DNA sequence: TATTTTCGTGCAAACGATTGCATTGATGCT
DNA sequence: AGCATCAATGCAATCGTTTGCACGAAAATA
């Protein structure tokens, strides 16, 4: 069926081992032989069998992707497309390809990861989320398998390498930005509470308020599942308060879309009656109306850097100390907060 | 290092072959032995090595994904997240996992596919686009490798199985819809011309005009690369015509966003001064302003069905006749065309 | 010229499973 | 009791590479 290394060897009048060395471009083979073998290779249309190769040298040239358990819903957020784009770019540059399993339940995802690791299907793993008490991260750490997480891991974060945005800082900055625009009643709408992002961003938000001498009101802090629809409920809850806020920090552009759409239905104008600022600066931020003021966090870069770290980790055999990479962010001012004048 | 089948065999006092048969749940092994072996397996924490397995039984339980060459830009369109979501769901249900290579040039993608197929890395392939004269499809067909394309393939489409929307019909329907709303000057803004989608949709558009007795004006048909930014140029060109259109059919929601945003800048109101209808019904359609009237094409379903066909094809050894699956679509009326009254 | 290095290559044993065929002991049949 | 049948398991070859080691010839050294 398949053209094997033996066929090539026969054609070129050498031993299979020689062919193998030619593939690896070993310096121990003479130029002349190399050429002869190479010619035989493309005459026969030879392609190495990946599995035989992986089996023999215990390497796969593939990296595994771990998505949040509800892969189903989650993949809808362009965040993931974008981070995968970053991962895939770097991976491809280094001759790695991508491998992904999905699962509906958290348990399924975990099983997927285990069999991917134990089954030696990949050389390393990048984890695309980070939540409290996550079995996956724990497992990877215990098995001393190369991995990096996008986002800040909880447990023992000093020993795991991760790449992240400084979400705490970003949360603080945007809150201060709103305050500078004159807002005193600033609310926060966040995604799932067990996600690191949410916690960091809300932490920054609180700090900013404190620093500005504004009391923190728990009723101003609402959280909802990470999608557009969640925004609706959040808004309704906020607007039914005795003193509704005049500005809101939303933890994700997608959710901000939901928030704005609901505000619109309720006849509340953005930015006149409510300022909205959010995070991620997805392409939709530019085309919503009004266009969203949002924090550009360079999602592509997160994926790219993560893969970079992972590949480093795969290549060094020493289990590395946890390394952390912070990808810089900046606020992109559009129209959802008014304050166009602000730099 | 790794726990192998031999370790399990030793532990359970049987031969490796018996363990293998237990894994495959062969009926030739007695219940008693099965249990003993299974116990040994999880005592030792055994996981089969995927590559050894693939090598021996010439199967991988993995499906390859082929993205358009400019994977880089393309992945930004939520279309791909969504179709992958469908693919991944079905794949996972049947114990397959996903494998993707990417490449920046068309040539790189092609090489990726070839080595994925010849290297026996996957059992089948789903191609996520279809353009004229595509080497990839040609190659897959020549190698008699199981594959299915999402979208309508050009060459010899009778022999390749594909799943698609009836884009021709959809194009015709939306055009008629606009006509029913009273529009006579209807333009078409499409994506890359060598994509099957574009051609089909514009075909339907033309047919509808003919059927309604409206002459086709070539200047009303513009095409631009498949993203938001392309929309801007298209609009400018259309609005500088002597008789600008009063309605426009846009080939993709993303592009429609660009179109609407440009119209907005130019002070042209939607839907009052320009009706806009588009395709795909991405989540953003719901949250744009005004919310987009768009054709729901069930992208998830496209991916899901495609994978279904692929798996069928993998399991039958007979090379199947090209099978075609058309996933139904329907118009979701929102506000970008006005005509709320229309059913 | 004899002896050590170096260079280029081949041999054969892994890597960790699967699977056709042989083996064995028990059972059924006459 | 003798023989065929059958169920349960083991043996060993195979899948297509890689790689440590051995080997002969050529080059370098003494």
Automatic annotation (TrEMBL), chains A, B:
GO terms for molecular function: DNA-binding transcription factor activity; transcription cis-regulatory region binding. InterPro entries: HTH_LacI, LacI/GalR-like_sensor, Lambda_DNA-bd_dom_sf, Peripla_BP_I. The keyword S-adenosyl-L-methionine does not apply. It comes from the Bacteria. PANTHER family: HTH-TYPE TRANSCRIPTIONAL REGULATOR GALS (PTHR30146:SF109), LACI-RELATED TRANSCRIPTIONAL REPRESSOR (PTHR30146). PROSITE patterns: HTH_LACI_2 (PS50932). It comes from Exiguobacterium indicum. Transmembrane segments: none annotated. This is LacI family DNA-binding transcriptional regulator.
């Amino acid at each position: 069926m398949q053209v094997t290394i033996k066929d090539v060897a026969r054609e070129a009048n050498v031993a299979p081992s020689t062919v193998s060395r030619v593939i690896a471009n070993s310096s121990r083979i003479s130029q002349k032989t190399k050429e002869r073998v190479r010619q035989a290779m493309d005459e026969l249309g030879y392609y190495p069998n990946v599995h035989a190769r992986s089996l023999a040298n215990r390497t796969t040239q593939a990296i595994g992707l771990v998505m949040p358990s509800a892969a189903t819903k989650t993949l809808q957020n362009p965040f993931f497309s974008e981070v995968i784009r970053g991962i895939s770019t770097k991976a491809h540059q280094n001759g790695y390809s991508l491998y992904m399993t999905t699962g509906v339940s958290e348990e399924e995802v975990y099983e997927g990861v285990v069999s991917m690791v134990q089954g030696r299907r990949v050389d390393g793993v990048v984890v695309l989320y980070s939540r409290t008490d996550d079995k996956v991260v724990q497992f990877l750490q215990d098995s001393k398998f190369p991995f990096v997480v996008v986002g800040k891991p909880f447990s023992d974060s000093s020993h795991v390498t991760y790449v992240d945005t400084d979400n705490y800082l970003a949360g603080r900055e945007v809150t201060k930005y709103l305050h500078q625009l004159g807002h005193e009643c600033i609310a926060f709408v966040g995604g799932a509470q067990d996600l690191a992002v949410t916690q960091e961003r809300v932490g920054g938000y609180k700090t900013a308020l404190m620093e500005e001498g504004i009391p923190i009101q728990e009723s101003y802090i609402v959280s909802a599942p990470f999608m557009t629809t969640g925004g609706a409920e959040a808004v309704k809850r906020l607007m039914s308060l005795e003193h509704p806020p005049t500005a809101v920090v939303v933890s994700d552009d997608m959710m901000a879309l939901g928030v704005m759409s609901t505000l619109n239905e309720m006849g509340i104008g953005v930015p006149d009656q409510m300022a909205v600022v959010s995070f991620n600066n997805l392409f939709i931020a530019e085309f919503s109306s009004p266009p969203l003021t949002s924090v550009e966090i360079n999602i592509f870069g997160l994926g790219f850097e993560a893969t970079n770290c992972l590949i480093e980790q795969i290549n060094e055999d020493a289990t590395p100390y946890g390394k952390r990479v912070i990808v810089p962010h900046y606020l992109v001012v559009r129209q959802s907060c008014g304050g166009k004048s602000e730099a």
